[in-house]
Amino acid sequence: LSEHWSADRLKLPSQIAPDDYVKALLASVPEERYDHYRLYPATDKKGWQEFRRERLRDALADEETVFFGDIVDGLALAVGCKLPSWDLNHFGFPIAKITWMVSYNLAGASRVMARLMDECMAFLASRGVKLIVTRVDGDDLANLHLLEDQGYLYYENSLWSVMDYSKMPASFERPNVRF
After folding, report:
1. How far is Cα 101 from Cα 91, in angstroms, rounded to an integer?
2. How remote is the C-alpha of 46 from its chain's centroid?
3. CA–CA dist 48, 27 (Å, integer)
4. CA 6/CA 42 separation, integer angstroms
5. Disulfide-capable partner of 61 in 4, 85, 107, 138 (CB 3.0 to 4.6 Å)?
6. Edge-to-edge strands of the sheet including 10-11?
7. Exposure string over 68-98, b if 16+ CB within 10 A, otherwise e
């Protein structure tokens, strides 16, 4: 795993080994977030989890993405942010995206997530970022409230449609997820 990320892009408490954290993060993708709608177009019960893990692996390998993480009760919590060079080159000032917010309804998790978000905001401020955008699942109330507590006024809310995509061309399919 360590060949995909560097210590300057993975900010953890000193007692947590980076490889242990990455393994916990990839292992703790919750099943219930992806299979509680019976009409989700997955051909495999674990298809959405694997899709999310694939996206996590891509983010960990992305040179422009930084993760702030911790572990609570064996589950990895994370705030991931990205400083896209394209935005800097195009707009002439740094813009950041909060690309990952991995949280759970556990005792103490909200305090840890607030700390991780504070660390992320301090990091972005140190890079001169004045505009931060994010997208949050509509049913993720804990993270929506966390963003509000951080002073976010506007954020994009994702709603996942539940419909039959079977008429989509085969080129839109993944091995375990049918779009």
Report:
1. 26
2. 18
3. 13
4. 33
5. 4
6. 10-11, 65-72, 75-82, 95-102, 131-137, 156-158
7. bbbbbeebbbbbbbbbbeebbeeeeebbbbb
Cβ atoms within 10 Å, residue 99: 20
Element (H, E) at 55: helix 47-61
10 Å CB burial of residue 120 (0-12, 13-18, 19+) is buried
Distances 71 to 45, 90, 127, 145 between C-alpha atoms, Å: 26, 37, 26, 21
Beta strands in 73-169 (DSSP E): 75-82, 95-102, 131-137, 156-158
Strands 65-72 and 95-102: unpaired
What tokens were used for 155? Answer: 């954020």
